[in-house]
Amino acid sequence: GQLKLSIEVRGRVLVLHVMEAKGLMGKEYQTCDSYVKMSIVPDADWKCRQKTKTVPDSKNPVFHEHFLFPVQEEDEQKRLLVTVWNRERNSRQSELIGCMSFGVKSLLTPDKEISGWYYLLGEDLGRTKHLKVATRR
Predict the structure, then answer these.
(1) Could you tell me what percent of the chain has a pLDDT over 90?
(2) Which parts of the sequence belong to the C2 domain (predicted)?
(3) Beta bridge pairs of residue 29
């Protein structure tokens, strides 16, 4: 699957706009009840975690939600982790569909534009990097 997002910097605040996803697959290729969770990691503090509303029954959910992440100096060595989850029907369990992460310090670079479609990576890879989907010219 893929996730479309943009990250903007306003002073010492990261503004994350989660737009939409496409090609999300649940178990047995069913549609997903998906949501996106974001946090600055590593972080023992749960207050920094934010999530979108759950979009039911869609392989291509549209979220269009904005999230603010104030950045402290000690956060510059951390990563902004974006995870996409499928909430299991009739259960409180969720399964990880995929994730990606961005170095906080690199996001604060003024001319670095993060915007567009990104691949959802497996958990281990996604915790260390992000992969932009190449735009067709």
Answers:
(1) 74
(2) 1-118
(3) none
